[in-house]
Write a structure and sequence with these properties.
Helix 6 runs antiparallel to helix 9. The protein is globular, with a radius of gyration of 26 Å. The protein is 32% helix and 27% strand. It contains 13 helices and 19 strands. The chain is α/β, with parallel strands linked by helices. Cell division protein that is involved in the assembly of the Z ring. May serve as a membrane anchor for the Z ring. It comes from Candidatus Gallibacteroides avistercoris. Belongs to the FtsA/MreB family. Self-interacts. Interacts with FtsZ.
């Protein structure tokens, strides 16, 4: 397999990140370029609200990325997540002839069939096998086994239909760049944040974003549970705004002095002055700021604990908790999580196999973990190399679409007429259009 360049877009509440990575023939990933634009108000909790505004910002990112590489982006992968994303259980069975061997094609056909499972007010955005029941025996990897009955136990990752629809409107309709594929953001993060041992032993991956906090649980090498909590780092910032400061100033105060645990009375004796250039914080006490951030992060942590309990795996997570995301940099957040859950906590780091072409980007920021995960999971080459544009056909002497300038010239053969659509194609087109209209909705409720 030759070297591939893969492009991806990560849609966040606070930022839109674009990334290009190079995968070698051996599968090693080098991050070639990362660019970002603030999301403004066009994205809320992972869902595009203003298509025009989002398309404009994404186009700027794509232009910046293309300026740093030798080629044009021909298609692009997109991470899909947000408040509505969660998992449901689903099983699909097949009765086979006696002593039929389980093949990759059989498993793939079962997964493809599961995509047709109707989910009210939602759309399937990912399918994750957990176990297979083969002649009433549990198997994790059934390929090659002979049996007469097989059942696949699956986790369907679902979200509201507008997630994909608005991404398509932005990229394909507005910017004219096809979507190479949709990748569930939580899976992308786990692909680079978790080790194989952690997925096997059982762990919780918590992605602290600006608008949402995503909880993913792995056990025995499989994804077992995803839930999205509609609170994130931006909620802390807005709470600080209640101390009579503007949001940009509140963001600076949160980054510089925010903490998950209020310091003790003894520690407060050496209270630092809230001194940030361009921020008037003379009327804000350090202790007050700490109490504001602690109150909100404790609320988020309580929601996380509730989701861990809801998953049914609370007693099976011996690898502990892994945290990532921009808001995971809050001071003493690992200590608070350990205090509340009793589990070991570590901050996610990238695998050593992933390198950076640019030194300035090599100082890794966990806010880009998800974007890097998208490139790690994607497969298709996304660039159109410079100088590879097809040469225009000559205007005469060919069978191409050009017509002779002189009508008395000998006629060139007409291009073959494309086959007419059949009845099935017409029915399928009408059905797809009606389904698209039915799925349009705007669900802003929190789903477990």
């Amino acid at each position: 397999m030759e070297t591939r360049y893969i492009a991806a877009i990560d849609l966040g509440t606070s930022k839109i990140a674009g990334i290009i990575g190079k995968k070698s023939a051996e599968g090693r990933l080098t991050v070639e370029a990362i660019e970002r634009e603030d999301s403004g108000t066009c994205i809320k909790r992972g869902c595009i609200l203003n298509v025009e505004d989002a398309a404009s910002r994404i186009k700027k990112i794509i232009t910046k990325l293309e300026n740093r590489i030798a080629g044009k982006i021909e298609k692009i992968y997109v991470g899909i997540g947000g408040q509505s994303v969660h998992t449901i259980d689903y099983s699909i069975s097949r009765q086979l002839n006696e002593d039929t061997q389980v093949t990759e094609e059989l498993i793939a056909s079962m997964l493809a069939e599961s995509k047709n499972f109707p989910v009210y007010n939602s759309e399937i955005i990912g399918i994750v096998p957990t176990e297979f029941l083969v002649d009433n025996r549990m198997e994790s990897h059934p390929k090659g086994i002979f049996c007469s009955d097989i059942q696949a136990n699956l986790k369907l990752i679902i979200g509201r239909p507008s997630l994909k629809k608005n991404i398509f409107r932005c990229l394909t309709e507005k910017i004219k760049i096809p979507v190479a594929g949709y990748i569930p953001s939580a899976q992308a993060t786990a692909a680079v944040a978790l080790s194989d041992n952690e997925k096997s032993l059982g762990c919780v991956l918590i992605d602290f974003g600006a608008g949402t906090t995503t909880v993913s649980i792995y056990k025995d090498d499989f994804l077992r549970y995803i839930a999205t909590i509609p609170f994130g780092g931006r909620n802390l910032t807005r709470d600080i705004c209640s101390l009579n400061v503007l949001e940009p100033e509140a963001e600076k105060l949160k980054i510089a002095y925010g903490t998950a645990i209020v310091p003790s009375a003894k520690e407060l004796k050496n209270t630092p002055s809230l001194n940030i250039e361009g921020v008037d914080a003379t009327k804000i006490k350090y202790q007050t700021l700490c109490r504001v951030t602690e109150a909100r992060i404790e609320e988020i942590v309580q929601n996380i604990i509730a989701q861990i309990e809801e998953s049914g795996y609370a007693k099976q997570l011996s690898a502990g908790i892994v945290i990532t995301g921009g808001a995971s940099q809050l001071r003493q957040l690992p200590e608070l999580l350990k205090q509340k859950t009793g589990m070991e906590v570590r901050k996610a780091t990238l695998p050593k196999e992933i390198t950076f072409a640019n030194r300035s980007e090599a100082v890794f920021n966990p806010a880009y973990m998800q974007a890097i995960g998208l490139v790690a999971m994607a497969e298709d080459h996304c660039l159109k190399e410079e100088g590879t544009e097809p040469i225009a056909p000559p205007t005469t002497g060919t069978t191409g679409p050009s017509t002779p300038t002189n009508p008395k010239q000998a006629k060139t053969p007409k291009p073959p007429t494309p086959p007419k659509k059949g009845l099935f194609d017409d029915i399928l087109g009408i059905f797809s259009e009606k389904v698209g209209k039915i799925l349009e909705e705007d669900d802003n409720t929190f789903k477990k």
